[in-house]
Amino acid sequence: MQIFEFEETDSTNLEALKLYKSGAKLPFWTRADHQSAGKGRHGREWVSKTGNLYASAVYPWTGEVGDAAKLSFVAALAICRTLEAYELTQAPQLKWPNDVLMNGAKISGILLENIGGAVIVGIGINLLSHPENTNYPATHLLEHIKPEALNDAETIFTGAAIMLPRLAKEFDDGFKQFLNHGFAPIRADWLARAKGLGGDVVVRLADEDFTGQAEDLLTNGALRVRLSNGTVRDVYAGDVFFPVQQN
Ligand code: BTN
């Protein structure tokens, strides 16, 4: 599968869209060392200094729009599996909808865009640095590699150009699993790595915040949250925070 690599671009998602429109053969990836206008979820900025991974996959998608959103769970699992190949001080965990956490802080984010006929799955993974003062506390991979493995890890693994083919393979395997077997195995693998299920979460929507217990990932990709009065709310879009540190 082709990987188009750039030293600098505005956003690998935008670069991917341009290549898709110019007829590049699907699926393909774009990757840049640095982004000048990295995009996060909900219109936020994704700080994109050199040294981290910024990449976007473009895959054909002719299925339901709602099903395309489930590819972000496929991507989150692919990121986890890619990170799990390192000698880590603790296992990565997942936070709904598609953040990857290390020791409770965000190491990776996913921005999925359905462009009609194809989906762009933009992935940022902090390898060597992370920004301060983010919406959610951030971290980077080098902080979580066992000290005794650090020399090897630094030279062999941490470069984004080296990591991307491994990530691409994991994502491709997950994409095929999703097409062939549906969301059930993805959901099970996601739940096995989910942080804070059964515990309290604060859900931040565009126009309100509420607190409850994170109960389940539904088969439609929504997060089911049980409120203190026993009723449930299914969350389709929003941000989740953990009120107290839970590991
Ligand atoms: C989030 O807000 O958690 C999603 C962040 C997604 C960032 C990645 S970096 C590569 C790709 N290009 C972008 O402009 N955004 C995504």
Features:
single chain, 247 residues, alpha+beta, BirA Bifunctional Protein, domain 2, SH3 type barrels, seven-stranded mixed sheet, 6 helices, 12 strands, globular
Describe the model.
The protein has 247 residues and is α+β, with helices and mostly antiparallel strands. The chain has 2 domains: 2-192, BirA Bifunctional Protein, domain 2 (2-Layer Sandwich); 200-241, SH3 type barrels (Roll), CATH 2.30.30.100. 28% of the residues lie in helices and 31% in strands. It has 6 helices and 12 strands. The protein has a 7-stranded mixed sheet with strand order 1-2-3-7-6-5-4, sandwiched between helices. α1 (12-21) links the parallel β1 and β2 (28-35). α3 (71-84) packs across α6. The longest helix has 22 residues, at 160-181. The radius of gyration is 17 Å and the shape is globular. The N and C termini lie far apart (37 Å). 38% of the residues are buried. The model has no long low-confidence stretch (mean pLDDT 93). Biotin (BTN) binds at residues 11-13, 35, 38-41, 44, 46, 54-56, 109-111, 122-124.
